[in-house]
Amino acid sequence: MPSNAPKKILYVENGIGYGGAIICLRHLVRNLDRTRFTPMVVTGRTGPQYREIANEAQWQHIPDRHVDIVGAHRKIDPIAWIDKIPGLRFIVNQVLARADDLFNFLPFFLHLLYTAWRFKADLIHANNEPLCNRAALLVAKVLRIPSVCHVRGDQDGSRLMRWAFTLPSHFTPVSHWVSKSIQSKLHVPEDKITVIYDGLELDGLDPTTDGTAFRQQYQLNDDDFAVGLVGLLIPWKGQEIFLDAAKELQDKIPNLKMLIIGGTPDDCASYEKMLKQRVVQEGLESTIIFTGHVKDMPKVYNGLDIVVSASTSPEPLGTVVIEAMALGRPLIGPDHGGAAEMMSHERNGLLFKAGDASSLASNINDFYNSEETRNSLGTAARQHALATFAVETHTHAMQTLYSSFIGATK
Predict the structure, then answer these.
(1) Which of 42-56, 176-190, 353-367 has the highest mean pLDDT?
(2) CA distance 58 to 329
(3) What angle do CA 222, 226, 229 make, to 5 degrees?
(4) Could you read off the pLDDT of 196-239 as tens digits, one per residue?
């Protein structure tokens, strides 16, 4: 291959579902300099949103789950009698783990290895943390090519996690909070870390986008006060706290509507069912609205009066935070993780005490009582986002990092 030929980057996405991580990856791939780099994206999951990637880059779906081990755990873990037999729980867990290795990990690894070899990848970029992307990182080891690994969350520092963090050539945590976490818990050397904030095509996030159609779709009247929690329906995204806050506010804010916006991964179908049961049991049917996955997010954000991020576990750098700020929306986030790093309380948003529904309810009420505060903090949020999260800045930083390992003509 000529020395000035574009370098080939193989991106591997193994997330739980279609959320912020894959959205940010698509923005990066679309803006990659094709005279310097040729991208190929491999995803472990498929669906309409994933298939759209084929319009933007070479794309291949390699199934990462042939046997539903997570579903098996969900059925077996609550069985109490297993614990009455010494050692049986350990044996069951080991059997499930080896089945996962044999029927899920190994086929994915071999298929990915063949794909990377045929593609003649120069570098592998794992879009999620090392443990769930260990197949991609091991492929890089086998092919003797460098690997870059995004880190998007707090890690528990377990023995297996520490091993996984020895695999990448370099790490790109999405916030300084994540960087400090992997240094302190997993002893990753600072010289193997480059903090790169996620970037989005902010030009496509037009603050003047009309949100009327979204409000009409969900029968929101002009005088309804609409508060939206945006994110996949998975337990740590905070939907339960959102429901708790709704209970506190439904008699305080006239015409309050609180929307839970986002799709549900297959693994979390039972969680969605539980949330909907709570709504009925607690008399919140007139307040809570479930929208499912919504594609045109600018219309969603601009159809809301307030946007909420309520993750109970520290989120590295939520896409919701970036998008809402870029659109100049009044935003409430938890006072931990990436939200606290990106937002300044009462300067470009409001921060509530993480995990505290009463604190969240209080902030929602504060925004409700002051349109001036909503407007001023929304304006400040957009200014901050435009200066920090532009996809051009993100892409330039990633390309510079790639070039430090494999070179690329400029």
Answers:
(1) 353-367
(2) 35
(3) 155
(4) 988 878 777 788 889 999 999 999 999 999 999 999 999 989 99
| 183, 221: one domain | no
The CA-CA-CA angle for residues 391, 325, 396, to 5°, reads: 15
Within this chain, do residues 125 and 191 fall inside the same structural domain, yes or no? yes
The C-alpha atoms of residue 397 and residue 357 are separated, in whole angstroms, by: 38
Provide Rg for the chain, Cα atoms: 22
Sort 274 into a burial class: Cβ within 10 Å, 0-12 / 13-18 / 19+.
middle
Closest CA to 145 of 167, 163, 173: 167
Question: Is residue 2 in some structural domain?
Answer: no
Verify that 218 and 289 share a domain, yes or no: yes
In the chain, the number of structural domains is 2
Report pTM.
0.72
Helix then strand then coil, % of the chain, to nearest 5: 50, 15, 35
Cα(216)–Cα(224) distance, rounded to whole angstroms? 11
Is the domain of 148 the same as that of 252? Answer: no
Positive or negative CA dihedral for 291, 342, 225, 235?
Answer: positive
Residue type, 87: G
